[in-house]
Amino acid sequence: MNKEGNIRIAIQKSGRLSEDSIALFKECGIKLEMGKGRLKSESSNFQAEFLFLRDDDIPGYVEDGVADLGIVGENVLVESEKDVIVSKKLGFSKCRLSIAIPREDPFEGPADLDGKSIATSYPKILGQYLSENNIEAQIHEISGSVEIAPSIGLADAVCDIVSSGSTLLSNGLKEVQKIFKSEAVLIANNNLSDHKKALLDKILFRINAVQKAQDNKYILLNAPNDKLDEIITIISGMKSPTVLPLAIEGWSSVHSVLEEREFWEKIEALRNAGAEGILVVPIEKMIL
Ligand SMILES: Nc1ncnc2c1ncn2[C@@H]1O[C@H](COP(=O)(O)OP(=O)(O)OP(=O)(O)O)[C@@H](O)[C@H]1O
Ligand SMILES: O=P(O)(O)OC[C@H]1O[C@H](OP(=O)(O)OP(=O)(O)O)[C@H](O)[C@@H]1O
Ligand SMILES: [Mg+2]
Q1: Which of 69, 87, 154, 209 is packed most tightly, with the most Cβ within 10 A?
Q2: What is the pTM of this model?
């Protein structure tokens, strides 16, 4: 394999993004070895080299071209103010940045934050929110364990990552304002060579197939032949459903693809239309 031709991909070494980033490349059929303490690894079956880094460093490395691609949370990307291309939203590590205050404090609206101090690791995103809403608050930048700040008298409020809300709850805080929605994104350097652009396209093609498969289910069912027309309109599938005769006279087997988001409504409609023996199975890859 041509070493110069490898596309360099930066992923988080360990943390909330690591497992899903590694799983994504595996599902795309791109092998990557991870040894203990190993910070760089070349794929054995794709022209790619992986760098295992702290997530905060990834946008800068991709902007500078030290890495060609990277996976990072939108929160870290926007806070970094680096100039890179967002190639794909990846749908994992979904979270939000929110302002939270002690549970017992009253809160009528964002104007209540005027004159308050807010601890955060995201001073730029918070600063933007405050200025857009004409709130004069003091930003107190800290690098971690932000939720502790009000209880030790460091700040009146916090602005940090929230997902389930359990960290806020266990620190006596309540979420009062969501200011930014985030998920993991694949970012790319602005000046990729044509060769690397072609490798990125290959990766994106595979990611799309993996994501499409995750959003869809394969469905098999039995139906009396006089109900086929109605059933086929309910599950039209990728082109049209496959219809095969059953050994028993007057019945057919119908195979199709269903989108996860409309799954339960369609199942109900199918049952009402006379479908029986409905089987639903996951799809591993889906190429349109
Ligand atoms: N509770 C959560 N639920 C979902 N996503 C989260 C959660 N916490 C963080 N994230 C997302 O995952 C990213 C990485 O979080 P993590 O806690 O691993 O970062 P970190 O401690 O700064 O890691 P590093 O050591 O690489 O600097 C965050 O920037 C955010 O996008
Ligand atoms: O709303 P929740 O589901 O409780 O998640 C939010 C917490 O998750 C993250 O921390 P993490 O657990 O990754 O630890 P860290 O602070 O060491 O990064 C984040 O910094 C919040 O503290
Ligand atoms: Mg970090």
Answers
A1: 69
A2: 0.90
